[in-house]
Amino acid sequence: MKKIIITALMSILFSAQAFANYTMVVPQKPGGGTSVWAQIVATELEKYLDEKIIIKHIPGARDIPGFNKFHNDLQFNEKTIMVSHGGNGVAFLQENVDYDYRKYDSVGMMNLNIIAAKRKDSNFSSEKVKFASGSGMVPEAFAMTMLLCGPDKSVDEYIQCFNEKVYWVKGMSGGQRRLSFKNGELNGTRENPAAFIKHVLSNKNAELWFHHGILQEDGTHSDDPNYPGYQFEILFKELYGTYPNGEFYNAYKLVKSFRDGLQKAMWMSKNNPHINTVRSALNEMSKNPESVAIIKEKVGNYEWIIGENGNAHVNTLVGFISDKALDVLVKFNNEALGLNSIRKNIN
User: Fold this and answer.
1) CATH number of 37's domain
2) Residue 154: CA atoms inside 13 Å, Cβ hemisphere, count?
């Protein structure tokens, strides 16, 4: 009987502690780019919440199961914060997923970018790009195809050119990809800003190739002040004398915007009673010089979009969706990248 009572008391105590703490759900294994970002942010955010944040990793195929779990179950715990990343944004456009950003409230997000690098000794005019596929890497495939193949091509011509000029390596983990790039087995790679600082800038054999720019409120993309002059559109204009346009570019703009615009975002259930508390703490953190300096050193200088502005950000992204852009996205995925993408109807 004594043992039963002690067990019951411990269970009650554990439940009380779990309820008192916030849980931040990360849809990938520890050590991944989003996991690294979440740990950085959670460490700082705790200082303004005055409560502990427990990070819960829920990995799975293409990082989808964690977000599905939040949608179907975890969001109903009022102290659960979901961290989404770019791969989730890409999957939302082209796979059957349970989650839908419009069904939650935005806590806040960093308006981030993805940076691509290449080996200094590579020459893509005479050798194939060797690039590892992975969750959320579709925009890199679109961008490198246009950079390598030039303007004024049909979707079929871009697919043929990609197959001729790019070796798209499947089945590598993030760690394997980074090691293969470091050893020269891959001559191209990409990272989010925090992982780029950690894994690429320290590599003496690597140099910046291109990035995708920062999404603005009006739907345009601006150059990244952390890596000026390397935005895809800028490099394309320098190479070919004109800015990219057309059906293939519009599909790229759609997928890169969803990937980067929602790359590191935090969500809670609709009308959550704790969301204003978390938003307020995030707002304090984003303005505190010490926290700003710590995050800037580890991630870069990127703005926060907090609260209802995050919901408006989602509405901007939805505005990029068109039937033709979705058609081209699915066609390129299936025929060039070998991804089993579906044509979704997103209303």
Assistant:
1) 3.40.190.150
2) 3
